[in-house]
Structure formats: C-alpha cells, structure tokens
Design brief:
The protein is of the alpha/beta class and about 270 residues long. It has helices spanning about 50-55, 80, 100-110, 125-135, 155-165, 185-200, 210-215, 235-240, 245-255, 260-265; strands at about 5-15, 20-30, 35-40, 65-70, 70, 85-90, 170-175, 205-210, 220-225, 230-235. A six-stranded mixed beta sheet has the order 6-7-8-3-9-10, sandwiched between helices. A four-stranded antiparallel beta sheet has the order 2-1-4-5, with helices on one face. Helix 6 links the parallel strand 7 and strand 8 (about 205-210). Helix 3 packs parallel to helix 5 (about 155-165) and helix 5 (about 155-165) packs parallel to helix 6. It is globular.
Length: about 270
C-alpha cells in the first residue's frame, strides 16, 4: 500500500540573498499513510504552516519533491492541486463567502472541479444532501440554508468550512491552526467535529496547532518541527501516553534551549 503523502527533502528559502533571507524549510521529510491524522507542533517559525503552504502550492519550493497518492504534484499550480486538497485556515472569514448563503457556499464546494457556475440554481437533491450534512454539525444550521454566512459566528463558519473542505473527500485535509481564533468552548466543539469528519470519511489529515494538549489528544500521530525540519515523530500507543511535559523536554533536548513560545505554554 503506497503513501498518501510523500514529502521528500523539501527546501524553501524566502528572500534569498537579501538581508531578510529566511530559511523556512530545511530538508523536510515526511510520509503519511492513508488515514493518518497528524498533528504538527513547534515554535514560531518552525515551518509548520510553511509545510502546509508547500503542499498546497502557495509558492514553488526550491528543492525536493511532493507526491500525493502516487501523483507527483511538485510542479502543479495551486489551482490544479486544489482537486486533491481540503483546507481550513485560522481565520474563520477565509473559508466562506460572507455575502452568499449557506447553501450557495456549499454548492460551490460540492461542484468544485465542474465547469458550470452557480447560474443554474441549486437542485432539490443538492439541498437535501446539504441539509443532511449540516445536521451532523448539530448547530441548527440545516434550517438556515438561505441565511447569509456573514451573519454566522466564527465557530459556525469554521464548522461549515470544515464540511465544505471534506465534501469532495479530498486526498488530504489541511487544518492550519483552525481553532486558534475561537473561544475555548467553540474550539473544543470544532475540534470534536474535525475528529468526526476525518473518521467518518476516513480522511488523511494534517493539523497545525499551537496547543500541545490538543496535539496529544487528537490524531494518531504527532510531529514536532524546529528550524524547518521534522525533529520528532511519534504515533500509536506512545503518542497516547505523552504528557505536555514530555514534549517540552523533547523540544529542549533538540533545540538546546527553552521553549520560547508563550502562547503554547499558556494553552
């Protein structure tokens, strides 16, 4: 059985040759099996979000190779890669169109990759299936299909974005600190929902988080990044037994310094 994602020796430097030069990825190697749900932690500038951007094709990498389900996507445009990927960002406003209704937003996601626009209306069958999907959120949104998304709370918008990102069953779901902007109670709800969607659809997923507790609690595998590479990779039983203190200790060992990210300590 092949890997769902292969990242081979990926390098990326921003502003090369200038005073602002920043080595963002410094030989990242990572293979994901189908159905892996990997949480990614690390200090500021460790390369966590940069890795997701490299996979999504936000810019081209300097060296290395990225393969999704056997297809080398290294040279593909961001637009072409979109067919393989679902993505949810930190800002709840990014994933949905505020001025459009819930059902219009969902129709765009459901018809991704098809040529036709929304001009031909939403069919009764589509509407039924959107209702069913929304019911699983348990937020009462199935009765508000025609509501403008801009009227919803951040948590509701992230929940809908998650649904939309998983509608077409992507090869890979990328979650980029997707609960960081939400209050703790709402964040917990969106995380529980993420778990459910990933397991229901048997998705392969990567979740960047600054919260060590969340990183331990969710997924079957945890990786720690530091200075643009993967420095720790733990899964299964060993991951379940982890404590936050273990992760801090591990970080200090490899970095030779204190964990300098207050946001992470406080989380």
């Amino acid at each position: 059985m092949g890997y769902m994602l292969e990242i081979q020796d990926v390098h990326k430097t921003f502003n090369a040759g200038t005073i602002n030069e920043k080595v963002a990825l410094n030989g990242v190697n990572l293979n994901l099996n189908p159905g892996d749900f990997v949480t990614i932690i690390g200090g500021n500038g460790a390369g966590k979000s940069t890795t997701l951007n490299a996979i999504a094709g936000v810019w081209s990498i300097d060296a290395g190779k990225i393969v999704i389900d056997g297809v080398d996507i290294t040279k593909l445009s961001e637009h072409k890669r979109a067919a393989f990927l679902g993505r949810v960002f930190q800002d709840p406003m990014t994933g949905t169109a505020a001025t459009m209704s819930i059902e219009e937003n969902m129709a765009i996601a459901a018809r991704r990759g098809q040529r036709r626009g929304l001009g031909w209306g939403i069919t009764k069958k589509e509407r039924e299936s959107f209702k069913e999907s929304l019911k699983t959120l348990d937020l009462g949104l199935e009765d508000r299909l025609s509501s403008k998304v801009g009227l919803l709370s951040g948590g509701q918008r992230q929940a809908i974005t998650l649904l939309m990102a998983s509608l077409k069953k992507p090869k890979l779901l990328l979650l980029d600190e997707h609960t960081a902007a939400l209050d703790p109670k709402t964040a917990a709800k969106v995380l529980a929902l993420s778990d459910k969607i990933i397991s229901d659809h048997n998705l392969t997923a990567m979740m960047v988080t600054h919260n060590m507790k969340d990183a331990i609690l969710h997924g079957n595998r945890l990786i720690m990044m530091h200075e643009g590479r993967v420095i720790y990779d733990v899964s299964g039983e060993e991951k379940k037994q982890l404590q936050v203190a273990d992760l801090l200790k591990k970080f200090e060992e490899v970095s030779g310094g204190e964990f300098a990210n207050d946001r992470m300590m406080l989380a």
